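Whiteboard transcription, Tuesday session. T.W. wrote the structure tokens on the left side:
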């Protein structure tokens, strides 16, 4: 009996996720395979850039950010 209830709960969750994706309200953040941009506008507004930071030299830090809205890369340098 427990296996049936587990399976029905799993199926219900899959149906819910599929319905949300079809409505454009995906619960998962994902990028388009073609453009590399974020697919959901909600995620793009919440996280305006996906950033990586690396230290260049001793006192400088260089950050390359990709804008979630435009998909363009922006490089910023600053002294630490």
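and on the right, the sequence the group agreed on:
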């Amino acid at each position: 009996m427990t296996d049936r209830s587990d399976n029905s709960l799993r199926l219900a969750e899959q149906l819910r996720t599929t319905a949300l994706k079809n409505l454009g309200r995906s619960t998962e953040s994902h990028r388009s395979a073609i453009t590399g941009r974020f697919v959901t506008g909600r995620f793009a507004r919440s996280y305006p850039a996906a950033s990586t930071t690396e230290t260049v030299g001793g006192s400088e830090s260089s950050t390359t950010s990709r804008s979630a809205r435009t998909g363009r890369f922006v490089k910023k340098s600053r002294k630490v």
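Someone added at the bottom: Residues 2-22 form the longest helix (21 residues).
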